[in-house]
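Ticket opened by: R.M.
Priority: normal
Category: complex prediction / small molecule

The reporter submitted a protein together with flavin-adenine dinucleotide and asked that the result be attached to this ticket for the collaborator who will pick it up next week. Submitted input follows.
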Amino acid sequence: MECTIIGGGVQGLSTGVLLQYLGHDTTLVSDSVAYIDGPDIPTVCTDYAAASVYPVQVESEYSEDDLIRQAEATFEPFYEADGVPVRKHRHYYVYEEEHPEPNPARMNVQDATAYDGDIPSRSGHAIRGGYVCKEYFVEMPEYIPQLYDAYLALGGEVERRTVTPDELDAFRGQTVFNCSGYGSRELFGDESMKAVKGHILQVPYDGQEPLPFSYTYTPTDYTHYAYMYPRKDTVLFGGSYLMGDMHDGEWTGESPEQPMTIDGETIPERLYTVNKDIMSDYVDVDRDAIRAKHGFRPYRTKGMRIEKDGNVIHNYGHGGSGVSMSWWSVLRTVGYIEDVGEDVLPELAATIGETATA
Ligand SMILES: Cc1cc2nc3c(=O)[nH]c(=O)nc-3n(C[C@H](O)[C@H](O)[C@H](O)COP(=O)(O)OP(=O)(O)OC[C@H]3O[C@@H](n4cnc5c(N)ncnc54)[C@H](O)[C@@H]3O)c2cc1C
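Result attached by the on-call engineer:
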């Protein structure tokens, strides 16, 4: 079938790879393509994803545990495939205060209070709540270019341009996959879209292997957590979620709690102070060497939209979960035109890995 995909983020590229793999004839139209056109384009959220396979800040009809199971199940084949940069490491989701809520259904989850290994913590503070689990983690600077290469190798075509609402009529004769993220606010008049600002601090790292763990850490003296994720040549500090909207290219929204400036970015200070305290044993946290940037999570207050409307199949609004839920979402959207299930993923993952090796 002839299809147009609007959007060159993780949803658009994953959709393109699956459709081409299934033998469809697709063109991906996007004003920019994640990583390929640079790792720092504010309208392309995928450039900013950390990216742990764990759904956060997303509205949906499914329970958190269901989303976790779907995200983990659909990423497992990519972890298992040779040549695809998806790792599995230990994750500490911990609190300095007691946390009586039940643990979510994550891989190998166990209560932090029953864990017999060391848990990273701030000096002078103990961990009193939370859990330890395993987590898939995607090395985005390699993974996204792999998806792009696989898409082209499978015969997909790319056009770089902005689609305007007036133009949508021109696509009437074909199936359109809308993966335009926050762009759907303007393109499809979806006012329920919000742009949730998030910062990432990139700390240089020169270890032989990426650090074998990550954490989400809630300190007693701040209202929100800070997190750390290890990449091959950087360690990422993050954990800011500032609700807002974009008007004429300008973002307005919440201000950071206890702001401080690093590398020209005004961030909530805990991203630096809490993470520096915990991580100084593992990496040299030199404030002047840190590179900071911010992106905008495409959060939809009405829930992520995976829905067919006429000739348009929508796939957007994943907030802070767009990488985690990418294969699950893509299977569902492509399912509108062809019967396809999770059993396609191992072969598809192998194909992506082979493209990268070639
Ligand atoms: C700091 C930060 C950390 C994050 N960490 C994680 C994480 O650990 N795990 C996780 O799962 N998620 C994470 N996310 C969220 C994740 O990045 C997003 O959910 C995901 O990237 C959204 O992908 P997308 O393809 O829907 O949108 P985008 O990546 O924004 O792609 C949209 C595409 O559409 C194009 N476009 C838009 N409008 C038009 C138009 N009119 N015409 C043509 N092209 C158009 C854009 O150029 C872009 O290529 C994080 C986000 C941030 C900001």
